[in-house]
C-alpha cells in the first residue's frame, strides 16, 4: 500500500513537471481528488453506473471538466460542481486520477 | 494496543526529517515504527471515513482504532425510502469488515468520557485507550428539555423520532434549524405520502415545521407537495411546545395523530459535551476548519454533525465524509511534524427522494478563505436540480453505493 502510494506520488510529480519540488502538489492533488470519491469511488475506482476516473488521461478529464464548467455539455450536477474548482485545481485532480491504475475490464 | 512510548517520538522526529527530503513524505517512517496512535470514536460517515483514510494515506505508519457501539453501519441517507416501504433495512445496513481488512482495529464498545489533559479515552467496559490524536464523530444527541414532555413521550415508545439510525419507524414535526440533514424531514414527508397515495389514499399527513419556511430545496419540495395535495399538509411556523404520547401542543392548537413523529431539537453528541468541547450556543463544537481540531483541545479533531458549521455548510453525511478526509490529511502531516494543507476543499452533494423512484439534488463546493480562516461556499457554483427525476434517483443510488464503499473500505 505504502509502496503504491509512493509510486503514485512519484508518477504525479513526473506528470506535473518532475522533481521533489512538486511533492507538495502531489499531496494537494491527492487531497483534492479525495473530494470526488464520494460519487466516483476511492482513488477514482467508481462502482455501478458512476464514471470511473482512475486511469483517465489527464487531458481528457481536464477537457471534460472545462466543458461542464463552461456549460458546453449539459449535466444535472457536474456543471454546478465543476464551477467550484479553479483551473489549477482541476489540473491537479486530473493528474492524480491519470496516475491511478486503470481497473480491469471494459470501461463505461 | 500498547501505549506509545517517548522513544517513538524521537524516531518520529528523525522520520520527519527524512520525509522532507523525499517525495510526499514517502519512506519517511522506518518499517515497523508507528508514526502515531489515533483513536476514532463513532463509525458513521465521519468517523469511519477518518479511520479508513488514516490507513489509506498513512499505511503502517499510523495505528488506528475505531470505537463504535453498533455491530453494523446503518445509513441515514436513503432511510426514508425504508419508511415508505421502497427499501428494506438490509439494503442500508453494511458491515465494518472492510475497515478491519484495511488495518483498522475495531472496538465495539461505548466511549463514555475523554480525559483531555491525559489524552485517554474511557470505555464502558472499564478499559482506557491512550491516543496521540483523538477523532470524535459523535453525531447529534437530542435535547429532551427543549419541548415539555418530549423525553417522556419518546421513552413511552408511542412518539417516534426516527432521526438516528436503527429499527424504528403520522404527523411529522420539524425542529428549528440547525439540525441533521436539512432536507430530510421534507423528503420523509414526500416518500411517506407517495406510499399513502398508493396504499391508503384517505390518510392524512401533517408536516409541522418550526421554521418559517422549508429549509432546503424549497421550490422543489413545494412542487413535490403539490402532487400530494389533499393528503399532505405543510405548515410553517408550527413550533412544538408540549408533547404527550398521543397529543402535540403548538402555540394555538392541539394536534392529535395516530403516529407522532417528532424530530427533536439537536446538539453535539453527549461525549463531546462531557469532554468540554461544546463552545458555540451551548450546542455545537467549535473547530478550526483547516484541521477540524477542536478550538479548545487541539489533540482532538471533531467531525460531522457535532460541529458548529462553516458558512452555508449543511449537516450531511457527505460532508462528514469530507470533514474526515481533511482531518486525516492534517493528522498525518502534523504527526510527521509537517505543515498541514493550507488550502483544503470540501464539497457536498445531497439527494432527496420525492417518491419511490424520483430524486433531486443540492450541491455546493467549499473553498478555504485565508482571510476569514474558514471554508466558504464558492459563489456561482453548486445549486439544485431543475426538477426531480428518475435519472437523478439512479444517481442517488450511485452516490450511495460509492460513498458507502469510500467510507467503509468496501
Summarize the entry for a quick read.
The complex is a heterodimer of chains A (108) and B (410). Chain A has six helices and no strands.
What's the structural blueprint in terms of helices and strands?
The complex is a heterodimer of chains A (108) and B (410).
Chain A: H1 2-15, H2 23-34, H3 37-40, H4 58-70, H5 78-82, H6 87-98
Chain B: H1 6-20, E1 36-41, H2 45-58, E2 62-67, E3 73-74, H3 79-83, E4 93-94, H4 97-101, E5 105-107, E6 111-115, E7 120-123, E8 128-130, E9 133-136, E10 140-142, H5 150-156, E11 159-160, E12 171-174, H6 184-199, E13 205-209, H7 218-227, E14 232-235, E15 242-243, E16 247-249, E17 254-256, E18 260-262, E19 266-268, H8 270-274, E20 278-280, E21 284-285, E22 287-288, E23 293-294, E24 300-302, H9 317-335, E25 345-353, E26 359-369, E27 374-377, E28 383-384, H10 390-408
Parallel strand pairs in B: 1-2, 1-9, 2-5, 9-24, 11-18, 12-13, 12-18, 13-14
Antiparallel strand pairs in B: 3-4, 6-7, 7-8, 10-19, 15-16, 16-17, 20-21, 22-23, 25-26, 26-27, 26-28
Helix pairs in contact in B: 2-9, 2-10
Can you characterise this structure?
In chain A, helix 1 (2-15) crosses helix 2, helix 2 packs across helix 6 (87-98) and helix 4 (58-70) packs antiparallel against helix 6 (87-98). By secondary structure, chain A is mainly alpha-helical. The two termini of chain A are 27 Å apart. The radius of gyration of chain A is 14 Å and the shape is globular. Chain A contains six helices and no strands. With 410 residues, chain B is an alpha/beta fold. Helix content of chain B is 28%, strand content 26%. Chain B contains ten helices and 28 strands. In chain B, the strands form nine sheets. Chain B has a five-stranded parallel β-sheet, with helices on one face. In chain B, strand 7 (120-123) and strand 8 form a beta hairpin. In chain B, helix 2 (45-58) packs across helix 10 (390-408). Chain B is globular and about 65 Å long. Classes of the chains: A mainly alpha (108), B alpha/beta (410).
Amino acid at each position: 500500500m505504502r509502496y503504491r502510494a509512493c509510486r503514485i506520488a512519484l508518477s504525479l510529480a513526473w506528470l506535473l513537471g518532475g522533481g521533489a519540488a512538486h511533492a507538495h502538489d502531489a499531496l494537494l492533488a491527492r487531497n483534492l481528488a479525495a473530494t470526488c470519491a464520494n460519487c466516483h469511488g476511492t482513488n477514482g475506482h467508481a462502482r455501478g453506473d458512476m464514471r470511473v476516473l482512475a486511469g483517465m488521461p489527464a487531458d481528457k478529464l481536464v477537457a471534460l471538466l472545462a466543458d461542464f464548467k463552461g456549460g458546453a455539455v449539459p449535466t444535472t450536477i457536474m456543471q454546478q460542481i465543476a464551477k467550484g474548482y479553479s483551473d489549477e485545481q482541476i489540473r491537479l485532480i486530473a493528474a492524480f486520477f491519470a496516475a491511478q491504475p486503470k481497473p480491469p475490464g471494459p470501461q463505461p | 494496543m500498547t501505549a506509545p512510548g517517548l522513544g517513538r517520538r524521537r524516531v518520529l522526529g528523525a522520520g520527519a526529517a527524512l520525509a522532507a527530503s523525499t517525495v510526499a513524505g514517502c519512506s519517511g517512517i522506518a518499517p515497523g515504527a508507528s508514526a502515531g496512535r489515533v483513536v476514532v470514536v463513532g463509525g458513521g460517515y465521519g468517523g469511519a471515513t477518518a479511520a479508513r483514510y488514516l490507513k489509506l494515506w498513512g499505511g503502517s505508519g499510523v495505528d488506528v482504532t475505531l470505537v463504535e457501539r453498533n455491530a453494523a453501519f446503518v445509513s441515514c441517507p436513503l432511510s426514508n425510502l425504508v419508511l415508505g416501504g421502497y427499501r428494506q433495512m438490509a439494503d442500508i445496513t453494511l458491515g465494518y469488515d472492510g475497515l478491519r481488512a484495511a488495518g483498522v482495529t475495531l472496538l465495539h464498545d461505548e466511549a463514555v468520557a475523554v480525559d483531555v489533559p491525559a489524552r485517554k479515552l474511557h470505555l464502558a467496559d472499564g478499559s482506557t485507550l491512550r491516543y496521540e490524536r483523538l477523532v470524535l464523530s459523535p453525531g447529534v444527541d437530542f435535547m429532551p428539555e427543549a419541548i415539555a414532555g418530549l423525553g417522556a413521550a419518546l421513552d413511552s415508545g408511542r412518539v417516534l423520532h426516527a432521526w438516528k439510525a436503527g429499527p424504528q419507524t403520522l404527523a411529522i414535526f420539524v425542529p428549528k434549524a440547525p439540525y441533521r440533514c436539512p432536507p430530510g424531514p421534507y423528503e420523509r414527508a414526500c416518500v411517506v405520502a407517495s406510499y399513502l397515495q398508493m396504499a391508503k389514499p384517505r390518510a392524512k399527513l401533517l408536516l409541522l415545521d418550526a421554521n418559517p419556511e422549508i429549509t432546503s430545496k424549497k421550490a422543489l419540495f413545494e412542487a413535490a407537495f403539490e402532487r400530494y395535495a389533499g393528503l399532505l399538509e405543510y405548515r410553517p411556523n408550527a413550533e412544538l411546545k408540549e408533547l404527550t404520547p398521543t397529543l402535540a401542543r403548538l402555540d394555538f392548537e392541539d394536534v392529535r395523530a395516530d403516529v407522532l413523529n417528532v424530530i427533536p431539537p439537536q446538539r453535539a453528541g453527549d461525549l463531546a459535551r462531557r469532554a468540554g468541547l461544546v463552545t458555540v450556543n451551548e450546542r455545537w463544537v467549535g473547530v478550526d476548519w483547516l484541521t477540524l481540531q477542536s478550538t479548545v483541545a487541539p489533540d482532538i479533531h471533531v467531525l460531522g454533525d457535532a460541529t458548529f458549521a462553516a458558512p452555508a455548510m449543511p449537516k450531511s453525511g457527505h460532508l462528514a465524509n469530507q470533514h474526515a478526509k481533511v482531518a486525516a490529511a492534517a493528522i498525518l502531516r502534523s504527526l510527521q511534524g509537517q505543515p498541514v494543507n493550507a488550502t483544503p476543499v470540501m464539497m457536498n452533494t445531497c439527494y432527496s427522494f420525492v417518491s419511490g423512484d424520483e430524486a433531486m439534488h443540492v450541491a455546493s463546493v467549499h473553498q478555504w478563505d485565508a482571510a476569514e480562516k474558514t471554508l466558504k461556499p464558492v459563489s456561482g457554483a453548486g445549486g439544485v436540480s431543475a426538477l426531480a427525476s428518475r435519472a437523478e434517483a439512479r444517481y442517488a443510488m450511485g452516490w450511495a453505493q460509492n460513498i458507502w464503499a469510500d467510507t467503509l473500505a468496501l
